[in-house]
Every structure is written in C-alpha cells, then in structure tokens.
Amino acid sequence: MRSLYDSNLLLEFQSNQIFFDTNVFIGAFSFPELFKDFFDGLKQVKCEFVTIPPVVFEFTRGTHDVESFSDREEFLRKLTTVYPIEEDGTDLREFTIVLQKIKGDIHFTDFLLIACLYKFPSSYLLSANHKDCPIEILDRKGIITIDTDREIRNYGIYQFSQKKFNKAAESILEAK
C-alpha cells in the first residue's frame, strides 16, 4: 500500500483552503496511513481543510449505529472545518446558469463544492469523482494516487479558473 503525489505541488497550497469531497473522507477514514504524508504536507504549508454540510451528511449516512456515527463525526471534527455555503448570501445566479449548462446532471453536493471554488478562487477541491469536476471551468492542478493493494484510486486536485469561466459564460449567457 502506498500513496503517490508530486511533493512540489504542496507549496502551491500554502495558506489556502482545500475543500474535501465525500470520497476523500471515505478513503482517509478507511486508509488513514495512505493519506497521512499528504495531509501532513498540506498542514506544514498551512493549508486549511474544509468541507460543507452535505458532504458531512454523505460521509456519516453510511453508519448503522450511534458508535460508528460518532467515530465518523469525530474524524471530521479533528480533520476539517465546515463551511455553510448554502447559508452564504453570495449571488450565484450567473455561476448557476453556466454550471447547469455545462453540467446539467450535477448533484447538489458537487454544485455546492464547485460554488465554494467560485466564491474562493484561490481554494482547491480534492475529489475522486472526476466526472463531477467540469474542466470547462476548473483546472486540474495535480493528482494523488492511492494504491490500497486491492485497487488504485486517483484523487484530482481542482481549482476554479476565472479565464475558463469567463469564456464559458460569454458563450452561454449571450446565447439565446
């Protein structure tokens, strides 16, 4: 078992936020030793770990008793802060129109995670669901590969691209 990533990439995260998707928590909870070096490296460059309430719900819904729910809740509490994007008053009208046109079948949790990147353009998203991260408005900055001996999981590190968004918005919002 091992994890592979470009350690030089860690400097790019210095003093920024990285939002975690549900699949990151599932992987890190199941294989903490494989994520330890990567997470420690991010912490060394003062990268803040953040998630959103729907991800907390998705991560804890797989529990069947109070003890396992509490274990997952404690894991989250020690690792991340939770940003309530759905309570944020930011106007997301233009963003919503563009993202719905690009990715009409997007799940609400993924929509909110990408909205966080839109709101905080210097932040990042770590996710293994590459199909949910539209490269029409996001840049893939790197990949961390987790080899569990039974399977290989690739987690993409994404960042909002204002340039790509402007290009997409121009064609989508002006089209009638």
Topology record:
Elements: E1 2-4, E2 17-20, H1 22-30, H2 32-44, E3 48-51, H3 53-60, H4 66-79, E4 81-82, H5 93-102, H6 108-119, E5 124-127, E6 138-147, E7 152-160, H7 162-174
Parallel strand pairs: 2-3, 2-5, 3-4
Antiparallel strand pairs: 1-6, 5-7, 6-7
Helix pairs in contact: 1-2, 1-3, 5-7
Descriptive account of the structure:
This protein is of the alpha/beta class and 176 residues long. It has one domain. Helix content is 45%, strand content 20%. The protein has helices at residues 22-30, 32-44, 53-60, 66-79, 93-102, 108-119, 162-174; strands at 2-4, 17-20, 48-51, 81-82, 124-127, 138-147, 152-160. Helix 1 (22-30) packs across helix 3 (53-60) and helix 5 packs across helix 7 (162-174). The longest helix has 14 residues, at 66-79. The protein is globular and about 50 Å long.
Short note summarizing the structure:
By secondary structure, this protein is an alpha/beta fold. The protein has helices at 22-30, 32-44, 53-60, 66-79, 93-102, 108-119, 162-174, and strands spanning 2-4, 17-20, 48-51, 81-82, 124-127, 138-147, 152-160. It is built from seven helices and seven strands.
List keywords for this structure.
alpha/beta, 176 residues, globular, seven-stranded mixed β-sheet
Helix content: 40-55%
- The N- and C-terminal alpha carbons lie at a distance of 52 Å
Approximate strand percentage: 15-25%
- Unreliable runs, pLDDT <50, ≥5 residues? none
Number of domains: 1
Largest sheet, if any? 7 strands, mixed
Structural class: alpha/beta
Anisotropy-based shape: globular
